[in-house]
Design goal:
Oligomer: single chain
Number of domains: 3
Order of helices and strands: HHHHHHEHEHEHEHEHEHEEHHEHEEHE
Strand content: 15-25%
Radius of gyration: 21 Å
Shape: globular
Distance between the termini: 64 Å
Length: about 400
């Protein structure tokens, strides 16, 4: 199919996108079922649609849809040729309110984050532990996590960067449940939890089950995971994914995030992967830059605090609580973690990942995983332990 025909298809899909119908929903409904497109053609369409939102700040409002896509691809080409300065990105690539919430170590870090936002995202996979040696060879084009990241963030031997052109959903390894498509930052949440076989855990905001499946693999399918979510649709997908991955040590249960957990069980560990503003996913989901507002950050921070308060009371003495959000705003990360810790003296901070040699215990009880450092989504994590 010609490039112009693919642009036409992208323009038709873009015309269906609205604040009430995000791009991800349109792609799931209109593009996923199509079998007349090759993987390369699908990637071309998705890239064009993402570019339309990535470069929205450079395109005049009211520009016809097809022209908007063509202009966005032109801007993407200029960026790829290093023809756009960081100052222009700071002014146009993200909404102005973001600078009131984001804190960078220095100007170089800020520039690196901005440039990372405007690139196509990397595809990461997570293999089951017993498949880590075989899947890279079967798929090809797999690169392991650099050694420096393993040392800094804990062992991730099942994480691989996939740089090939195959549709991974159609491969035998995926259909057999031997690997999942999962961003590296999300995989590191599982390593931060570090559950042990035979323990009882609660994945309080399990969604479609990506992190729950990782916890089950780390637990060798032993023990029990309570997986809760307020969405029946997401829990139905979780059950399908668990069946494909041969995960059986879980119970899926509806929970609306209220004051009381879905069970009276006391847990060895609780993961609160809370709903958030998603700033850490702005590279992968550029439309979200323009649909998220400061009021959303404030409302979500209140939800996150309520979830953490509930989770704290569900821990056994010595139980581990891990908080994770794929955002980078101060209100939902360090600010929230500090306020929560001050209100819960029964908890003590513990290291998010295995402590480094010579570090004092608990000295790294929070971690910001920056997208431009990991080449992944951005993520914030914090960890506590209920005092004996």
């Amino acid at each position: 199919m010609s490039d112009s025909a693919l642009v036409n298809r992208a323009a038709r899909l873009l015309s269906l996108v609205s604040p009430r119908t995000p791009l991800e929903a349109v792609l799931r409904r209109e593009l996923t079922p199509r079998r007349d497109l090759s993987p390369a053609e699908r990637r071309h369409i998705v890239r064009a649609l993402n570019a339309a939102f990535r470069w929205q700040g450079w395109i005049e409002p009211g520009t016809p849809v097809q022209q908007r896509i063509q202009e966005a691809l032109t801007w993407q080409g200029r960026f790829d040729a290093a023809a756009i300065k960081s100052e222009a990105l700071a002014a146009r690539a993200v909404p102005a309110w973001a600078w009131e919430e984001l804190v960078f170590e220095d100007q170089d870090s800020k520039s690196a984050w901005l440039r990372h936002l405007q690139r196509d995202p990397t595809l990461w996979i997570r293999t089951r532990r017993e498949a880590a040696a075989s899947i890279p060879g079967l798929l090809g084009d797999c690169q392991p996590v650099p050694a420096g990241f393993v040392e800094a963030f804990g062992p991730a031997p099942t994480a691989f960067r996939y740089a090939g052109a195959r549709d991974l959903f159609l491969t035998p390894g995926f259909r057999e449940g031997r690997f999942e498509i999962q961003d590296l930052a999300s995989q590191l949440v599982g390593h931060a939890c570090a559950p042990k076989p035979g323990e009882t855990w609660w994945d309080a905001c399990a969604g479609e089950g990506g992190k729950m499946l990782h916890l089950a693999d780390l637990m060798e399918n032993k023990g029990l995971i309570w997986a809760s979510d307020r969405s029946a649709r997401r829990l139905a997908i979780l059950r399908q994914r668990a069946a494909r991955a041969r995960v059986f040590n879980y119970r899926a249960v509806a929970w609306d995030g209220g004051r009381h957990p879905p069970t009276r069980t006391r847990f060895d560990g609780v993961l609160v992967d809370a709903p958030c503003s998603g700033v850490g996913t702005w590279q992968r989901h550029p439309q979200a830059r323009w649909t998220t507002a400061p009021r959303d950050v404030a409302e979500l921070a209140a939800v996150q605090r309520r979830l953490l308060d509930c989770a704290a009371g569900a821990l056994k003495p010595g139980g581990r609580l891990v908080y994770s959000v794929c955002t980078l705003t101060r209100s939902e990360t360090t600010g929230l973690a500090e306020a929560f810790a001050a209100a819960h003296p029964e908890l003590e901070p513990v290291d998010v990942f295995a402590p480094q040699a010579g570090a004092a215990p608990g000295s790294r009880h929070s971690a910001t995983l920056w997208p431009h450092v990991l080449d992944s989504n951005g993520m914030f994590l914090a960890a506590w332990r209920r005092k004996p």
